[in-house]
Design brief:
mainly alpha; 10 strands; 11 helices; globular
Length: about 280
């Protein structure tokens, strides 16, 4: 056993007390700023700016930075990113508000990785699918080497499930509403993996003998399970339940219209096609 050491601050990495004390330090951050998402030490501040209104994000970032400094923590400006989502046809010159952390400007990006999922300012999933494909293709090379080494087909399938398919399907309920073109690209990864394991079989035959499903089918099942879990979660802290909420109809006149909308309707009934294809709507 090592001798006792006295630390000036912090805790040795890997101790059970470390995560608990860290939570004590920063847990009130959620209470003070509601328009924010936090997972351990990863914090994202969100803001919806009405037209002809000013952004409050620089003030929010300064408050978060001061909050951290008061607790002996300093934000790393190199890891802080700003992403703007703006679909207005005419964008003003003042749309991009500079944000500073410790006096250093925060980089404005068109996409960034949030908890393993790549978000883009055009709200598409092209960047995420591209990143997933790069990792999957590099791991397919390992399957080819194992095949040359004489590994059995069933073992290759198990390695594919553990190390490649698990990466492809990570957080799939978030991005499952991808177009067919991207879905086919992801499906091609599984096709190549099964071609390595069963080079003499067609894709459907390889699926049957390996007891696998189409990736698109697995995403549908995953999304349905996700929505079912939302239904069971009656907590008021679940923001996605608001999308599935039923809005009571309000009759504002004494006459009837052909398209009278006084019946109870979900909130998403008045939104765009993009939101209607969102997982909580599509599988409701």
């Amino acid at each position: 056993m090592s001798s006792w050491k006295k630390t000036n601050g912090g805790l040795p990495q890997g101790t059970k007390l470390g995560p608990l004390l860290f939570a004590v330090l920063i847990n009130s951050l959620l209470k003070n700023w509601p328009s924010r998402i936090k997972f351990v030490d990863d914090t994202s501040a969100l803001e919806i700016i009405p037209r002809f209104s000013s952004s409050l994000m620089p003030l929010v970032v300064n408050e978060i930075s001061d909050y951290a400094l008061e607790r002996g923590i300093e934000l790393n400006y190199k890891k802080c990113k700003q992403m703007l989502i703006n679909f207005l046809k005419y964008k003003g010159s003042d749309d991009e508000i500079p944000i500073y952390v410790s006096g250093k400007p925060v980089e404005t990006v068109s996409s960034f990785k949030l908890l393993g999922v790549w978000m883009s300012n055009d709200l598409s999933w092209n960047t995420h699918v591209d990143m997933v494909l790069k990792k999957a293709n590099s791991r397919l090379y390992a399957l080819r080497l194992l095949k040359k080494a004489g590994l059995q087909a069933s073992d290759i399938v198990q390695i594919y499930i553990s190390f490649i398919r698990s990466r492809i399907e990570y957080a799939s309920p978030v991005w499952s509403s991808i177009p067919k073109s991207l879905s086919d690209i992801l499906e091609s990864v599984q096709k190549r993996a099964l071609r390595i394991a069963y080079p003499d079989l067609l894709y459907d035959e390889a699926l049957e003998i390996s007891n696998l499903q189409y990736l698109s089918t697995r995403r549908d099942i995953s999304c349905k399970k996700f929505v079912e879990s939302l239904r069971r979660d009656v907590s008021s802290y679940n923001p996605l339940t608001q999308i599935m909420e039923i809005r009571p109809g309000v009759k504002t006149h004494d006459y009837d219209l052909r398209n009278d909308r006084t019946a109870e309707q979900p909130l998403w009934s008045e939104t765009t096609e993009r939101l209607k294809n969102f997982v909580t709507r599509k599988y409701y």
